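Reviewers asked in the last cycle whether our approach scales beyond single polypeptides. To address this, we selected a multi-component target totalling 554 residues and predicted its structure end to end. The input consisted of the following lines:
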Amino acid sequence: MALTAEGTTKFADAKGVKLHYHEAGAGPVLIVVPSPGTGASAWGQFKYNIDGLSRHFRVILLNLPPAGQSDKTITYDGPRHAFYAKVLLDFMDSLGIEKAHFIGGSPGALPVMKFAIDHPERADKLVLQCPPMGRPSMFTPWPWEGSRLSQVVRQDPSRENVLRQMESMIPREDLRTEEFTNDRFAGVNDQETNEASRRITGPSEDLSPDLGKITHPCLIVWGLNDRDVPLDHGLRLAQLLPNARFHVYGNGIGHFPNYERPREYDRLVIDFLSN
Amino acid sequence: MATQTLTEESTSNYVQAGSIRLHYNEAGAGHPLIAIHGGGPGASGWSNFNVNIGPFSEHFRTMLMDMPQFGKSDPVVVDEERAIFNAKAIKDALDALSIEKTHFLGNSMGGATTIRFATMFPERTASVVLMGPAGYLYSPFTPPPLEGIKALFKYWEEPTRENMKQIVDLFIYEESLKTEELVDRRHNAALAHPEHMEARAKSSRVQSDLLTVAPQITARTLIIWGREDRFSPLDHGFNLLARIKDSQLHIFPHCGHWCQYEKADEFNRLVIDFLTHDD
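The resulting structure, written as structure tokens, was:
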């Protein structure tokens, strides 16, 4: 019995901010926070895992504004992660969720970390999937290959440019499905979301000085062939966080381990969150 | 399912591996799994893996094998690169036991042995787990010899309890695990077999850079490291990950060179999951 986007769609009002999310399963709450930027929605990025994870947790796939059908009216130019961390807090309060595990997908992991810094008692365990930890990379000169391609796609989201970006993000051809590419293509061509993204302009704060405060058990996940966020960012995070395990998938895995190795990823995450 | 209480005595076995009599501790049924200990003084299969054999034996025919010149195996002189010598002995043991193919858990020297075995006898190798493997000559970030290795050499030159305490202090991360009892046990185990020390003194000291052969490994491989390992450098883990095609790397925080002991529960679950699935 597969879950569907429509069947799991819900809406919340987080102190005036409309949030679109998907919910399935019962048990401890697990909030999945993918990138709020342009690209596939929360469902598009994590539909591959919601079946497996919802057998053990009350899973919430959250669209941070303006992703999915979440609020597209916000104009904001302050610190980005603090803003989204507040959205998380208001979201949890609106649903009466006291405490939750989190999965943060790439840039989505940054507000998750900020949330754990600012509201430690509201976060249980954290899964942090290839978050960019600011510049520089110890080995990869800026701009990174993925950043360059993202810029190209932002300027011209043609099918050809999206395909080029997909080849870089998911290097293994056998793992790159039409479905994943189509979801991404639709996402980067969603004019309403793109326009709304351009109104959230604030800087990305450097969380490094406060990472030592995150004493929660963390699991950092990366693909060895990630060309969007260099691997050394994960190692740096593993050294700066007091209590983080670091798992790297080889064998050609790129920027979406939850999609590229779904069954292994599900088991790794379920084991980490359950023990 | 309750785990029977396994003891060193109740699991003790011997096999004639060619000209070498090898001792091993065995428990459980199912797919064979061989665990190979590290090369420190007083090391043996049981001393390295006694908190793992129980859970593993619920899924695998688990064998903790004492390498030549260790534990209750023969105190033979090793006349070539130790990892190659060990791999050949293991192959002879598998033949004697009529075991076609086996999983491997290799810790430190055992990891180097496993890498050699997987490249010399790929058809006898199922899945591979390497814990802080040896077999490196160079490290860009932590110049060899590492502190822990220096402490090992100091003990071999002068096997005193104080020098063993030094080793234990560098070996494990958590202070509470560095017990006097552990120091005594390892020191006494080393002293109990002077014949191993004598054979060691006459043995080859040849070491190779196994990064040169790692790309030949076709087996599924899980590489595990303690973030605070002072015996095998962390960058070696990344070097192996980049060279072994079907591999993964898992780093435990607050963990030294004995991850299967320091993080026993997490380690057991992670490795059993890896060995019982192929996706």
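The first strand of chain A starts at residue 9 and ends at 14. We regard this as preliminary and will revisit it once experimental data from Aim 1 are available.
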